[in-house]
Amino acid sequence: MKKQPLKYLRYARTFKALAHPVRIRLLHHLMENECCVSEAKSCLGISQPNVSQHLKILREAGLISGIRRKTRICYRIADGRMHDILKSLLEGES
């Protein structure tokens, strides 16, 4: 079996990060506002450790980034393509 080029591994990591409904909801929320873990917890209705795990996956895939604001880290979409992808998905809903 041939070794896959690195770009395909990056693509797979991106698709894996998008393969969970909570992460898609989180990205949808981040399209409008940056938020910290406590805000995401309230918005999504899931536990803080669960939010942190989803944020970690999105961050490792390079889809979001965090910026420290005093004692909190606020997250925002880092990959501009996510806006287009999510907008396209959401507009396709009936």
Structure overview:
The chain is an alpha+beta fold and 94 residues long. The protein has a single domain, classed as Orthogonal Bundle (Arc Repressor Mutant, subunit A), CATH 1.10.10. It has helices at 6-17, 21-32, 37-44, 48-60, 81-91, and strands at residues 35-36, 64-69, 72-77.
Core attributes:
about 90 residues, alpha+beta, Arc Repressor Mutant, subunit A, three-stranded antiparallel β-sheet, about 15% strand, globular
Write the layout of secondary structure elements.
Blueprint: H1 6-17, H2 21-32, E1 35-36, H3 37-44, H4 48-60, E2 64-69, E3 72-77, H5 81-91
Q: What portion of the residues fall into strands of 2 or more residues?
A: 5-15%
Count of β-strands:
3
Q: In whole angstroms, how far apart are the ends? A: 42 Å
CATH class: Mainly Alpha
Gyration radius (Cα, Å) is 14 Å
Corresponding CATH superfamily:
Winged helix-like DNA-binding domain superfamily/Winged helix DNA-binding domain
Residue runs with pLDDT of under 50 for 5 or more positions: none
Strand order of the largest sheet: 1-3-2
In DSSP terms (H or I, runs of 4 or more residues), the helix count works out at 5
The coarse overall form would be: globular
Major sheet attributes: 3 strands, antiparallel
CATH fold name, please?
A: Arc Repressor Mutant, subunit A
Averaged pLDDT: 90
Q: What is the H/E order?
A: HHEHHEEH
**How many structural domains are formed by the residues?**
1
